[in-house]
């Protein structure tokens, strides 16, 4: 089953920025990574996939329903983290996770499990605004994943995470996919992507330019070769951007 589908989706911001004519899908049980340079359009694509932005052209389907008419129960089956974690600064870790569980129509019992799984027990009663950057990110990830969503969309989730937390994240995503969830994740860490994702989509100047093979000896080289090649064909200088 296709859990997320974008058909010929475009949204421009002027100066050629934004997302152009993107068609892609993520199937149940699959981890798909999105990679590209800064400003390639990864976050914009994720915002469009989550209904945070409305496409100027094209359609988005989430868990089988068109975005515009997706019922609330579909959104409860989505887990997302785009840019900063959505949390109340004056509430504690536990309170924020409790609210996230309620918003996803989940059993609040999942909060205790999430506190353990994301090693947040020591900061369970600390206010969110007093947490370190990486710990905030762990709270955001716990809030996005604790209700075992069927569709996971995470924008640069390993930002600010320490190596132990990166491993935790990898285990969580692998487990969600093994349980049948569709996972879309953007990243700048090509090694991590190679370890986690089944497919890696390459984005450049707002367009998907194909899949990046991550099983070769030099993924970084392959990444830059593809981008330079795409820029050359478009008559754009990569270094000049
Ligand atoms: N709200 C907005 N208004 C105007 N331009 C925008 C807006 N959001 C994004 N852009 C532009 O659209 C392009 C794509 O931005 P986006 O944030 O999607 O890229 P990205 O691939 O996620 O980058 P990064 O790796 O730096 O997070 C950029 O040129 C950006 O400046």
UniProtKB/TrEMBL annotation:
SMART domains: AAA (SM00382). Residues 4-230 form the ABC transporter domain. Gene3D superfamilies: P-loop containing nucleotide triphosphate hydrolases. Keywords: ATP-binding, Nucleotide-binding, Transport. The keyword Acetylation does not apply. Belongs to the ABC transporter superfamily. PANTHER family: ABC TRANSPORTER, ATP-BINDING PROTEIN (PTHR43335:SF4). This is ABC-2 type transport system ATP-binding protein.
